[in-house]
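Give me structure tokens for this 147-residue protein.
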Amino acid sequence: MKRSRRLDRIVHLSSAAERRAALAIARAESELQNLEAQRNDLRRYQTDYLQRLTAGDHACVAGYEAQKLRVFVQRIETAIAGIDQKSALMRKRLARERDLWATQQRRLTVVSEIAVRVRGDESRATEASLQREIDDLGRSKREFQCV
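Here you go.
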């Protein structure tokens, strides 16, 4: 098997690895966006419940209900803190995925360039071989005519 064929297989495998790395980035970005959306939703809920709690009409909110609202707002705050932790981890994961993708991209570029160079070398070698055969054929015809 020619060297260029072997390198073509390596290029194909490198390309597939680069695509997988790009998909991993897309998944991580999507998960991060989902976490951010959840956090924003929880912030809105928290704001709404805090407005109810601090509304000017305290007569509408009984002591027990006010306590329930405070507990609920605190649970929302705990959930937001959990989402913030998950978001921080996801950002780190996203950075790792991007680094991996960049490495795969560089590898693919290098291997592709090598494959192109090897194909060119093989092509020049084939052309030189054909030219030698043509030259040899021409010499042998002249030698045959001279005899």
